[in-house]
C-alpha cells in the first residue's frame, strides 16, 4: 500500500478540484478555508509543518477512522462529532486522504438546496 505525504500545493489543488469549490481566508491570512455553496468542507493552515487538514465526516465513520489511524483525531476547534483533523505526515494512504476530502465535500453539498446541487453538477444527484 502506498503511503504518501501531501504537500500544501497538492492539498489546495485537491480541494479546489471540486465543482464550485473556493478558497477563503475568514480567520486569518494563514488559514485556508475551502467552501462550496458558502459552507466549509476543509480547513488547513497550508504553511504549517506538519501539514494537517480538518474535514467534515459522517459521525460513525469519524469514530472508526480515529480508532484505526493515529493521524486522524477529533476536529481541532470544531465539532468533534462531525469533524476530523487529519495529520498529513505520510502515514495515511493518499487514496484515503483523497476519499476523506471528497466525502467532506459530498456531505456539505448533500445538505445544499437541490437547485445548488444541480448548478454544481453534483454526482450525488445521479446516485454516483
Verbal overview:
- With 128 residues, the chain is of the alpha+beta class.
- It has helices at 8-16, 59-68, 94-110, 114-119, and strands spanning 22-24, 31-36, 39-45, 52-56, 72-74, 83-87.
- The protein contains 4 helices and 6 strands; from the N terminus they run H-E-E-E-E-H-E-E-H-H.
- Strands 1-2-3-4-6-5 form a 6-stranded antiparallel β-sheet, covered by helices on one side.
- The chain has a single domain (8-120), classed as Aspartate Aminotransferase, domain 1 (Alpha-Beta Complex), CATH 3.90.1150.
Features:
33% helix, 4 helices, 23% strand, globular, single chain, Aspartate Aminotransferase, domain 1, 128 residues, alpha+beta
Brief characterization of the structure:
Keywords: DNA-binding. One of its GO terms (molecular function) is DNA binding. By secondary structure, the protein is α+β, with helices and mostly antiparallel strands.
The helix-and-strand class reads alpha+beta
**Mean pLDDT metric:** 93
Order of the strands making up the biggest sheet: 1-2-3-4-6-5
How much of the residues is beta strand, in percent? 15-25%
Give the low-confidence spans. none
C-alpha-based Rg, rounded: 14 Å
Indicate the percent of residues in helices: 25-40%
Into how many domains do the coordinates divide?
A: 1
Q: What's the number of extended β-strand segments?
A: 6
SSE order: HEEEEHEEHH
CATH uppermost class: Alpha Beta
Name the overall outline: globular
Number of helices: 4
What's the architecture, going by CATH? Alpha-Beta Complex
Largest sheet: 6 strands, antiparallel
Protein name: MmcQ/YjbR family DNA-binding protein
GO molecular function, one term: DNA binding
InterPro entries: YjbR, YjbR-like_sf, YjbR/MT2646/Rv2570-like
Keywords: DNA-binding
Amino acid at each position: 500500500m502506498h503511503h504518501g505525504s501531501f504537500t500544501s500545493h497538492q492539498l489546495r489543488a485537491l480541494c479546489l478540484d471540486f465543482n464550485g469549490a473556493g478558497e477563503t481566508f475568514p480567520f486569518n491570512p494563514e488559514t485556508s478555508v475551502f467552501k462550496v455553496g458558502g459552507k466549509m468542507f476543509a480547513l488547513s493552515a497550508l504553511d504549517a509543518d506538519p501539514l494537517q487538514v480538518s474535514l467534515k465526516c459522517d459521525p460513525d465513520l469519524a469514530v472508526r477512522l480515529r480508532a484505526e489511524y493515529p493521524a486522524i483525531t477529533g476536529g481541532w476547534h470544531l465539532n468533534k462529532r462531525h469533524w476530523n483533523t487529519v495529520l498529513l505526515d505520510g502515514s495515511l494512504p493518499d487514496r484515503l486522504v483523497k476519499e476523506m476530502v471528497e466525502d467532506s465535500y459530498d456531505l456539505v453539498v448533500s445538505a445544499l438546496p437541490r437547485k445548488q446541487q444541480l448548478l454544481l453538477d453534483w454526482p450525488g444527484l445521479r446516485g454516483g
